[in-house]
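[step 3/7] fold_predict: job queued, chain A
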Amino acid sequence: MKFPTQTAPLPEAQNSVQRVMLIVLAALVPGTMVAIALLGWGVLINVVLAITAGLLAEALMLKIRARPVRPAIFDGSVVVLAWIFALCLPNLGPWWLPVFGAIFAVVVAKQLYGGLGFNLFNPAMVGYVVLLISFPEPMTRWGPAIDVGGGALSFAQSLAWSFHGVLPSGVGYDGLSVATPLDHAREQITAGATIHNVTASLFNTSHLLQSWTVWLGLAFLAGGLFMLWRGVIRWHIPVAVITGVLVMSGFLWLIDPARHASPLFHLLTGATIFGAFFVATDPVTASTTPRGRLIFGFGIGVLTVLIRSFGSYPDGVAFAVLLMNLCVPLIDYYTQPKVFGHKRGNAKPGGSN
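[step 4/7] structure written:
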């Protein structure tokens, strides 16, 4: 039988790395813009510093490994990695947080494993967790764009704070800093307050500064739905993550509603939606089978709630993702689809007998 052939130039694959990364970057824009509007210019500074440091680290490592630099730099993968990582950082943190974290993520979590497509762990989450464990105090410097006096830090003032730790005259750090809803809930519950009283103001939309994580979540939800529409991610992992969060938090809430937050609180605060659509769906470190993606995502959701409820850190998305990254080889091994002509129990990964 004669098969049809085609001479060069051959058509480019529809889902090239560069195309996928450009769609992800476009999906990140709404959430980033909302973050800048609610949290100030520190968000943009973190993104720019992380991307710059990540690109330089990628180029240096490729040079050391004698690999072509230009294709890897311009495929957009490093920009996506650094951008996602930067959005996890506090807006009032020092300049070296995004720089050090991005370099660590690219060099250690990505390039030392062999580069794009070979890393076991999500590089952005590795960089974030390293910072969270190594520098806990700077990683808590969250604050709204508008301080108690009604003024907002300009871009120049944000740069001065990030690089030199200098604030405008009459503006104190205590007036700028604010606890995230998860931090606030943990502190108040430890002090003896009930979860109902702690979370009552979160869903009062007349207090924007108390609901900024809700608006961020909705913005990232819009970006996630855009990626689903463009076909760069599948529904399995986001739906499974959200389901895991709702099921686990609902179970704890039914057992002790005075101590554990409602499923709605867990869904709309922290990095739940951002993690479900932009972090857990990393094609390299996530499960590759349909059933495996459901198990992988559900595990992330369950672990996120357990870490939030019983762990030492207010949010558990990053730790949950890394823990489930460890389980991916096992999940993929036992969720391989049935090989045609063989019983399911005889199917092996890769289709071998």
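[step 5/7] annotate
Residues 101 and 230 are 30 Å apart (CA to CA).
The radius of gyration is 22 Å.
exit 0
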